[in-house]
Specification:
- This protein is an alpha+beta fold and 372 residues long.
- The protein is built from 15 helices and 9 strands.
- The chain has helices spanning 19-30, 36-47, 78-86, 88-94, 97-102, 106-112, 121-130, 163-175, 217-224, 244-255, 301-308, 316-325, 331-338, 342-356, 361-370; strands spanning 55-62, 68-74, 134-142, 146-154, 194-204, 210-213, 261-268, 271-282, 288-300.
C-alpha cells in the first residue's frame, strides 16, 4: 500500500494506485484552471499509469462543424504531423469524425480489424511511420461548446486493445469532461508561483532550417505557441516553429555583426518561457555560424503539484486542497474556491500535516514535489 511515512516519502499502495483512484485523479487534473492544451502533457503522464501506449494524440475540433482546430501528439515527428494537417480531409474520409463521435471512437477498432486497414492512408501515412499498429480513441466534450478526440496507440507486437480497454478509455473521456470550462472557481485564487519544468535546445542555421533539437523541444514549442489552435507550426522544421517574437529575434541575431546573444521572455497564463539565443560556430569541412536556442519552461506550481500527487495516499478532497494551496491562498479564499467551510478546510489541512509530520501546507507541497 502506498503509504506516507513521517518523513513524507510515498510507498506503494493498493487503493491509491487503483483504477478508481486513477479516474479520480484524472478528474482533478481536468479541473485545473488552464486551457486543455496546456494540460495534455501532464494528463498523458497520468494516463500512462493504467494504459500501455507508444504514441498518444489529441485533436481539437469545432463541435458544430467537426472541422479541426488544433492537434497535439507525443512523441512529435514534425513531418508526419504536417502530412496529417495537409491531408486531414482525406483522413476524415476513412474515419469520419461524425461516426467517430456517434460510436464514441469504437469505429477505429472496427477499422483496424478490416483487411483493407493496412492499405489505408491513416495507417500508411500516420500510424505506420510512428511504428504503431493498434489504437483506441474516444471523444472528449470540452467545456460548454468544445470537442476533442483522444487517441492512444501501441506497437503491433503488443497486440490489439481489448473491449475492456475501450470501456476504460470511454470512462477517461468522461473523467476529462471539466477541461476548458469557462467559469472555474480556482481561477479566482492568487496566481501561483512557477518552477522550471523542462529545458530544451535547438540549432538553427542562417536560412532558418532546424539542424537539431533536443527531446523536450517540441513539447515546449507547443506550449509556448500563443495561437494554440490552427496548423501545427510548432512542429515545423524551420524557425517558424518558434513563437513569432522569438523568430524575429533569431533573424536579428544573424543580421547583427556585433551581437552574439539575445534573450526573449514570454509569460503566458499557463507558464513562462525563457529563450536564450547565442551565435556559435559549428566546426567541420564547411564551418558555419548557427543560432543555439536554449528554452526553459517554467510551469505553474499547481500543475506540477497535481501531476506529482498521483499515487499519494490522499483522498480526492485532500488532493484538491493541496493543489489549490499551491496558489498560496488564504484559508478563506481556499474554502470559497472549493465550496467548503473554513472549518472543514482547517480540519483537512491539520489532518494532512499531522499525517505527514509537517507544520504547513507549503512544507507538504515541497515534500511532494521533492519525492522521486
Amino acid at each position: 500500500m502506498r503509504q506516507t511515512t513521517r518523513a513524507g516519502g510515498p510507498q506503494s499502495s493498493s487503493y491509491y494506485r487503483s483504477e478508481r483512484a486513477w479516474f479520480d485523479h484524472l478528474r482533478i487534473m481536468a479541473e485545473l484552471p488552464y486551457p486543455s492544451r496546456a494540460l495534455m502533457s501532464s494528463i498523458a503522464a497520468v494516463l500512462g499509469q493504467h494504459f500501455q501506449w507508444d504514441f498518444i494524440a489529441f485533436g481539437w475540433d469545432d463541435r458544430q462543424t467537426l472541422q479541426p482546430l488544433g492537434y497535439w501528439a507525443e512523441p512529435v515527428v514534425g513531418e508526419i504531423l504536417k502530412t496529417y494537417a495537409d491531408n486531414f480531409a482525406k483522413f476524415a474520409e476513412e474515419l469520419p469524425l461524425g461516426i467517430m463521435l456517434e460510436s464514441r471512437g469504437r469505429i477505429l477498432r472496427m477499422a483496424e480489424a478490416s483487411a483493407e486497414y493496412e492499405q489505408s492512408r491513416l495507417y500508411t501515412d500516420l500510424l505506420q511511420p510512428y511504428g504503431v499498429r493498434w489504437g483506441l480513441a474516444v471523444p472528449v466534450y470540452l467545456g460548454e461548446d468544445g470537442l476533442g478526440f483522444l487517441g492512444i496507440f501501441r506497437r503491433g507486437e503488443r497486440g490489439p486493445y481489448t473491449d475492456a480497454d475501450q470501456d476504460r478509455l470511454d470512462k477517461v473521456g468522461l473523467a476529462l469532461g471539466d477541461l476548458d470550462r469557462r467559469h472555474n472557481p480556482l481561477a479566482a485564487l492568487p496566481k501561483p508561483a512557477s518552477r522550471e519544468a523542462m529545458i530544451a535546445s535547438m540549432l538553427i542555421n542562417r536560412q532558418g532550417r532546424v539542424l537539431g533539437l533536443s527531446r523536450n523541444a517540441r513539447n515546449i514549442l507547443f506550449l509556448s505557441s500563443k495561437a494554440g489552435m490552427g496548423p501545427p507550426d510548432w512542429a515545423r522544421a524551420d524557425w517558424h516553429a518558434l513563437p513569432p517574437e522569438v523568430t524575429m529575434k533569431v533573424k536579428r541575431l544573424f543580421a547583427a555583426e556585433d551581437r552574439d546573444h539575445l534573450e526573449v521572455r514570454l509569460r503566458l497564463p499557463w507558464g513562462g518561457f525563457d529563450f536564450v539565443l547565442e551565435k556559435i560556430e559549428l566546426a567541420g569541412e564547411r564551418p558555419e555560424t548557427v543560432a543555439n536556442v536554449i528554452i526553459r519552461h517554467h510551469e505553474p506550481l499547481d500543475i506540477a503539484v497535481a501531476r506529482a500527487l498521483w499515487g499519494w495516499p490522499l483522498s480526492p478532497k485532500e488532493k484538491r486542497i493541496l493543489i489549490a494551496s499551491a496558489r498560496n491562498p488564504s484559508r478563506a479564499q481556499l474554502a470559497a474556491a472549493l465550496g467548503l467551510t473554513e472549518g472543514t478546510v482547517r480540519h483537512y489541512i491539520n489532518e494532512i500535516q499531522s499525517r505527514m509530520g509537517m507544520s504547513s501546507r507549503q512544507e507538504v507541497i515541497e515534500q511532494i514535489l521533492a519525492a522521486p
